Fold:
Amino acid sequence: MNLEIPPMRRFAAVALAAGALLTTTALAAPAEATPAGTHYWKYPGGLSGTQAWGSFQRSHWGSKATVLFRFNVKDAASDKRDACIQAKFWSGSSWEQYTFINYHGAGTTASGGQHSYYRGHLDIRECVGYYYKSGSKKKFKVTKVSSFRRYY
Structure:
């Protein structure tokens, strides 16, 4: 019984294994979709009285790779609601969502930043809401939102 594999079949087996490896790598790409360098974003006039802009970039928090998300939220309206933005980060299987609030009042700009280990996609939308008391806790209720816009 001859157990030797003919050369052409060996080549086919290696090519098939390499193709399967490349396909697996391509399917895993969303977890690494964050583009290199610093990228600037601006939400294009979603809600009246709210302006949002900032940047994102690949970063590290300790030894783990992250996305560093920076934002500015301007409350340009003189009503009793506060301007905010919501940012969602995609891991490849689930979303991580944050709400950043400008609680300083009309005419002010709030700035901040957030690291996220979820590097697949970044979606941002503007929102407005108000604070209320629930027992001894102060909570924020979002009352109006724009559509999410994908930035990567």
